[in-house]
Amino acid sequence: MPESPLLAVRQLDAFYGDLQALFGVSIELATAEAIAVIGANGAGKSTLLKSIAGLLRARRDAIAFDGVPIGGIPAHDVAARGIALVPEGRGLFASLSVEENLLIGGQLKRSGPWNLHRIYELFPVLAERRRLPSTALSGGQQQMVAIGRALMSNPKLLLCDEISLGLAPIVVRDIYARLPTILGERVSVVLVEQDIVQALKVAERIYCLQEGRVALAGAAKDLTREAIAAAYFGV
Amino acid sequence: MVWINVILQGVLVGGLYAMFAAGLSLIFGVMRLVNIAHGDLIVLAAYLALVVTETLGIGPLASLILVVPLMALIGYALQRLVLNRTLGDDLLPPLLVTFGLSVIIQNGLLAVFTADSQKLHAGNLEVATVRLAEGVYVGALPLLQFIVAVAVIAALQFLFYRTPLGRAFRATADDPAVAQLMGLDNRHVFALAMAVSLAVVAIAGVFLAIRADFDPSQGPARLIFGFEAVIIGGLGSLWGTLAGGLILGVAQAIGAHLDPGWQVLAGHIAFLVILAIRPEGLFPKVRT
Amino acid sequence: MSVRVAFASRSSRVGMALCAVGIVALAAAPFWGGRDDLALLSEVYAYVALASLWNLLAGYAGLVSVGQQAYVGLGAYILFAFAILAGISPLWAIPLAGIIAAGVAIPVAMLVFRLRGHYFAIGTWIVAEVFRLLAAQISVLGGGSGISLPAGLIIAIAPSRQLRDFIEYWIALALVVVILALILLLLRSRYGLALKAIRDSELAATCNGVDVMRTKFLVYIVTAAGTAMVGALIFLQRLRTSPDAAFSVNDWTAFVIFIAVIGGLGRIEGPIIGTVIFFVLRQTLADLGTFYLLMLGVVAILVMLTAPKGIWGLVVDRLGWQVFPLERRVVLDERSAARAPMAATDGR
Hints:
heterotrimer; A: alpha/beta
């Protein structure tokens, strides 16, 4: 366990209206660490990320970032503190060009290693297509824009919600191949994935959610496939 | 030659209608809000200009220096304090609240300024004419008003597509939740959009007040003209809105030429005909 | 033990009984009230009817119109046209106004239904403006300055002024009772369920097989007919019409919307409560002139922001009352073995 966590989620409950989606979830993450949150559909993975990003209500002390409680503060405030979410389904702005999507990610003007130039270096294909509307790109390229847009805010913590969703395996491998570069800039990463194989390659530790609760947590290398499968499917 | 003049007059007035429409179109584009009080805010701007010109003894065009930022400020406050609280999936709250606002502004103006009609005086500018061709003369004021209208549309176009603020407007319109993830505070972005809208309203209001008499009851008709221009031009396209304003102006001018009682009616009929045969407007923005 | 579906509840049985007593008492008003009372009550009935119709349109069908003055004015002008140009008794002209307005509403609906949401609202307003401007062009009906009903036609209704007042009062009362009863029946019918489904979620209603457009179309036509009959009656009582008065957006839409909003949208009781509040405010504050209207606007905005369901919405939430038996509720019942299609709690 990290000693002074960058992110500490403690006993987080989350609701959609009257429906409770998370029950006392606790996770921790150190600076420059990558963790994976896995689980079946509806286990609460996206809910967890949305709560951290400020899109859902949360108890103030349920989420601490850099030691400051941030639970339930507005999403734009969370972003300003250095948490960036790559939303599920990418959430690109349809009426903005590729470059405008990246620029709006950088509009907070936080200083750090990432700028347009570095993003185009990381994803060269985007440089060629920067004038196109974001909707004109392939799924994989759109995902690159979404990641690049999040990095443009120079976050300390990057939350990635199912970046492999709906992409061909070769494209997924291609995108995951860039993650070490991102981690090299001392960015912490939370990967929410259904594709466990990919997640385990990058993440040092994993949390497995099941029906809104943490069913299993531990270092990736210590966990057996059987244990993960059991926590994943709840058998 | 008579008809050329009629159409020319219509085009020049159409610029004013395009200004009525541009502010309406902008806030609809950013936050899907139709401001029923839009016309009354135009009239409010006219009265603000009246107060400014009378207290400072300056001309109506100079008064813009004060009236534009003042209206923008009102727009920002209005959105932050009232209208943001009405936004959501339900259409009724924003509609009813702006409708209530319209009644408040109308009666507030009535209480302060009475129902007497007022006018802003721009001195020589009002009588000066410009010769465009043999037998074709236009007033300097309508011409200036038209040039300003084109400039306003061009400026909005630039703001929307070439500046960080415009980018924020478009992003928030596309997806307000994801826009927040970019550090954009929706409430602030919406309030800025309303501020821009009312800055345009201020310019429109001052020109309206120089061109003709105005009184507190004129707001709804200005709202309707602006709305007609937006729909004729096609939603989401600023140049389309300008074209819509010009078409409305020309239709009204032709109607007025045939019979003075038909001026406004002819504009409405042009609107209804376009709604019947081309409900998406003449120049809709193609969204991919 | 079996289950059956019932409309009535204890509060609604009490409510309906009180309604019946109230209607009888109001019908007897000519025997206990003066001429001013009758005039005021007639006006109250007109606003209850207009607000209830608007509530049906906006609160239930989601068709937020700010152009219902088109039909008030249309009704007035149809009555005056039939009476003055064809010599038809104004009393007969009232139902005719309803029928013709329904016919006019069909092409209008086909046009304005092309506009969505807020734009629909302004579109209806433009239609009303077109009607107003056209009415001003009809020189045989006085053009822009309007026209009065000729004395001969008025006397033909009843020879004495008092009897005429009584007849017109009873028609006003009958009209509002009939309109409320029809709305109640409509909402209890298959269409009513469809309307509530649309009110709660248009998408979900479509998915469950509700023909949303057809239902909305029907409501628009029915509302137009009712509004025109009320309009015809209002201007029969005023004996004079003009384009500005008959197609007034303030009188026939702004006030009506405030009544419906303050009382509570999407509830049949709302417009009645709203009308009472509106008239109490008007009778006590009317001396303030424009400030009264200004305050009305402020009150409407405050209600919309703080209690969007209106006064009656608050009552329902706190006390669970319903005067009009409108909601289906499942009742445990030992006798009947009726089918129970759904437990339609009015979830909003």
